Amino acid sequence: MKPRHKRFAFIGLGLVVVVVATWLVMNALKSNLSLFHTPTEVANGEVPKGRPFRIGGMVEDGSLKREGDGLTVHFVVTDTAKRVPVTYKGILPDLFKEGKGAVAQGQLAPDGTFVASEVLAKHDENYMPPEAAAAMAKAKASGAQQSKSLVVPEGRKDSL
Amino acid sequence: MIWSKYSAPQVFYPLAGRLIPWFAAVAVLLMIVGLYMGFFVAPTDFQQGESYRIIFVHVPAAWMSMFLYVVMAIWAGVGMGLNARLSFMMAQAIAPTGAMFTFLALLTGAMWGKPTWGAWWVWDARLTSELILLFQYAGVMLLRTSIDDARRADRSSAVFALVGVVNVPIIYYSVQWWNTLHQGASVSMATGSKMAATMLMAMLIMTIAFWLYSIAVILARVRCVMVERESLPTWDEKPAAMSEAVEAR
Q1: Domain ranges of chain A
Q2: Distance of CA B236 to the CA centre of its chain
Q3: Which residue from B8, B19, B108 is spatially nearest to B62, judged by alpha carbons?
Q4: Which of A49, A75, B61, B84 could form a disulfide with B105 if both were Cys (CB 3.0 to 4.6 A apart)?
Q5: SS (H, E, C) B169-187
Q6: CA distance B120 to A34
């Protein structure tokens, strides 16, 4: 083995050690690196007690209710398995919609309601013109497309 | 190996000089085409309206920030393995451009986050790991400038760059591994594209433009690094002065 082969082997070995070490640290920190907890985690009591945390999930269809003051809103965050009712007083982001993702920061009240101090909208990775989205919604309503995702089917991309 | 002759700075310097204008010209051209397509041809998005259009700068910048880090780490590794000066010079030349793209990705991300998410910044895994990448670029550059001896500076910053390369897959997969506010990848090798065709086209053109821009700027910078390190007059302009300076050693 020439000296430079040795050096390359040494660099390679060093990189492997660093990767393994990082992987171990990441695994140990797994839950701490997530921005929010899911409603299932809330239901299982896997959330910090007595201090603020974030929950994330879909805003359940038909759950959004506004109070008379126009600022206080009630909605339900769900991960399709469990539901958490949320109360928030403030202005919601433009992209906050029923059936879309949201992340709320706040605390659990004793009655199980999540009292949010900040609500963020989480948008997805699909981008398409409104006409395509409308056509897709129509197709979905008629049962033509059963897929839950909004991925543009291969053959129809050109028509967008 | 014919290519090895280009590892000599005296040969590489004029070659780089000849290539720079071509890369720069095509980069500018593609940037104009890409931005025009992005802002005027690509359709409005069904959810985000017009604000999504920052994607045409944000995503290519973020891709380049990760790609350039890997390229920098490879040059650093080759430099360590072969003791090749030019490799270290390439690594040195890449760092500022990589840092610029990282900053651009963070800045455009913040500008995008406010109207869509409702926040300029959140400490989710994607945003935090990208911020760490900016610190890594800064670390590589600082380590180099803080050590006077060029050989030691090269090696220290190369080790730093190589260790930091683990962050690149972390940035890329952060949106899959953890719950993040940042959305998942719209374009990936595994699942294809989740964007309308013209949007994707504009984004890819911008990516190629940024890539060619990076090559042009990095080649220009590596020429400066060569002149600076070898304390020589610029090679292709004053060949006589150069050979004198080389002979004087």
Answers
A1: 3-32, 36-122
A2: 27
A3: B108
A4: B61
A5: HHHHHHHHHCCCCCCCCCE
A6: 18
pLDDT computed for residue B241 by the predictor: 63
In a domain? residue B61: yes
The pLDDT averaged over each successive group of 10 residues in chain B (249 residues) is: 70 89 96 94 86 93 97 95 90 96 96 91 91 95 91 93 94 88 82 84 95 96 88 58 64
List the 3-42 stretch of A: residues with Cβ below 8 A of B: 4, 7-8, 11, 14-15, 18-19, 22, 26, 30, 33-38
Say if CB A51 and CB A108 are below 8 A apart: no
Cβ neighbours of residue B88 under 8 Å, at least 6 residues apart?
A: B75, B76, B79, B154, B158
pTM of the model: 0.84
Residue A20, strand partner residues: none
Amino acid at A13: L
Of the options 3.30.300.180, 2.30.42.10, 3.40.50.12780, 2.40.50.140, the CATH number for the domain spanning A36-122: 2.40.50.140
